[in-house]
Amino acid sequence: MKTPKGKYSRILLYDTTLRDGTQGEGISLSVEDKLKIARTVDRLGASYIEGGWPGSNPKDEEFFSRARAMKFKNARLSAFGSTRRKDKSAGQDPNLAALLRVKTPVVCIFGKSWDFQVVHALRATLEENLRMIGDSVKFLKSKGKEVVYDAEHFFDGFKANPEYALAALKAAVIAGADNLTLCDTNGGSLPHQVGEIVAAVRDAFPEISLGIHAHNDSDCAVANSLEAVRRGCGMVQGTLNGIGERCGNANLISIIPGLQAKLGKTCISAEQMQFLTEASRYMNEAANVVPNDHQPYVGMSAFAHKAGIHVSAMARNSATYEHMDPNLVGNKRRVLISELAGRSNILFKAKEFNLDIEKHPEGVERVIRRVKELENRGYQFEGAEASFVLLVERELRPYKPFFDLKAFRVIVEEDREKDGLTAEATLKVAVDGRAEHTVAEGDGPVDALDKALRRALIPFYPSLKTLSLMDFKVRVVNAAAGTAAKVRVLVESKDHKETWGTLGVSENIIEASWLALKDAVEYKLLKDRKRP
Residues 197, 231: contact at Cβ < 8 Å? Predict the structure, then answer.
C-alpha cells in the first residue's frame, strides 16, 4: 500500500460502518444485517470492509466466521483491535491473538498519539507506548497481515506535542505498517487545521500511504476528509450515512461524490456512484433509521425545488439551481407543488405525470389558484403528488369521479369480550347510479373505512384487490387551536406497479382520513384507466 508522495492513482475507501458505525446511539445490527450491509458496501466499490472488533463480542466473531465464505468483488475484510497491553508481549496479547483468529487479510490497530492520552488513559510512559505500537505492528506483519495503523487522537496530539505525535507514527512505520491513518477521534478539528497537519505528516513521511478517519462533532467530518485527501491522504475511512458514536463518523455517501465530482479524484466507478442513493436508503432500512430527507446528494429533498422562480430558471438550464446532475448519484430532481408554486412548477409537474396541461392555458391558472387556496387551508402537496394529479384532472376538464359518497358512519366501542376497542364502518356509495351499502370491521376507524370502501368497489373495479395501504401519518396544522385544530392526514398506498401519496385536511380526523383514502382509490382507478 506504500505509495510515493503525490502518486495516488485512486483514493481508497475504508468502510467502518460495521464496527465504528455500530457504536452510534440507537444502532443495533444483527449478524444477518451486517452480512447484507457488507454486500452493499462491496457493491458500492469500497476497498476495505472493517467487520468489527474480534474478542469484544460474539456477534463480531460470528460475522467474521460467516463472512469468510463470502466472495467480495472489490473489498478486503479487515478486523479491528488495539495495540498490545502494556503488561503483555505481542505474542501473548489476547487482543492481537483474536485478530489473527478471524483470519482476515487486513488488520487495523489503533494506538495512542497524544501524550495526554498515554499518561491519563493508558497510564503508561511515553516510551512504553512507542514500544507497544512498534511491537504490535511488527508482530502482525510477521504473520503476513496488511496492517493499517490508526493513530488515535492524532490531531489533538499533534496540536499539543507534534514531536511525540510524529514519533508515534515513526514507531509504526519502522515496524512495517502499510498505512498510517490519522484520526480526529474527538471530532473537534477544523478543515484548515487538518490540512496543515496532514501536509506536515506528508512531508515527514513522503513514501508512506496516509489515511484520514474523521468524526463529526464539529460538523466538519466530510470537509476534513476532503481536505485531508487534497493535502496528501490516499485513504478515507468512514461509514454509510455517517452513523457512529456521538455525532457520527465521516459520511462516505457525501465523501464519494465530493471526491469524484468536486475534486476530480477516482475512488469508484461511475456506475457504482449511481448506486449511492440506493445504498444510503438500504442502510437506513437495515438500521431501522428514519431517512434524512435533507441529506446532501441522496436525500429526497436534495434536488427538490419549490420556488417558482427557481423552477422557471431550471427549465432553461438546471445548473441555475443545482450543483450537479442528480442522476450521477442515483437520485432524481423533484419539483414541489405549494403556495410558492408558479406556472413553471405546475407545467413541470404536469409533464412528469404526462398531463396535457399546456393545451389548457386558462386551466393552468385555475390549478395555481386552487393549489394556493388549499395550501392556505392546510393542504401540503409535497409527498401527496397523487392528490395533485387528481386536482389537475378536476380543474382542467369536466371530471367524472369513479364513485360518489352518499354517507358513512364510523363507530368505535369497547368490546369486553375481545378485551379492547373495535371499530366498525358503515358506508354508502354509488357507482354509475348503482348504490352500494357495506359494513366492515377494522383494527381502527381508518382501517374499517378502508375495508368498507374496498368491499363496496371491488365488484365494479376488481383491480382494487392489488391496492394496499403502506403508511398513515397525521399532522396537526394549527396547533394553537387546541382540540379544534385542523389535522392533515397523509396516506401512502401501493399496488404491484408503484407507490403514491394522497392527503386530506379537516378539523375531524376521520373526515381527513376519508379524503386521503378516497383520493388513493381514485388515483389508482385513474391510472389503471390510462394504462394501455
Answer: no
* Rounded distance between C-alpha atoms, residue 120 and residue 118, angstroms: 6
Q: Closest Cα to residue 255, out of 79, 25, 15?
A: 15
CATH number given to 12-268 = 3.20.20.70
Region(s) of the chain under CATH 3.20.20.70: 12-268
User: How far apart are alpha carbons 83 and 133 in whole angstroms?
Assistant: 6
- Looking at the DSSP bridge assignments, the partners of residue 239 are 251
Residue 256, classed as helix, strand or coil, is: helix
What is the spatial distance between Cα 273 and Cα 276, in angstroms, rounded to a whole number?
A: 5
Q: Is the dihedral of CA 34, 40, 44, 48 positive or negative?
A: positive
pLDDT higher than 90, residue 298: yes
Dihedral of the alpha carbons of 93, 96, 101, 106, in degrees to the nearest 10: -170
- pLDDT level of residue 55 (50, 70, 90 thresholds): confident
Backbone angles phi and psi of 444, in degrees to 5: -155, 175
- Tens digit of pLDDT for each residue in 478-522? 666 565 678 889 999 999 888 898 999 999 999 999 999 999 999
| Long-range CB contact pairs, 425-429, < 8 A, 24+ | 425/449, 425/451, 425/452, 426/452, 427/452, 427/453, 427/456, 429/403, 429/404, 429/405, 429/453, 429/456, 429/457
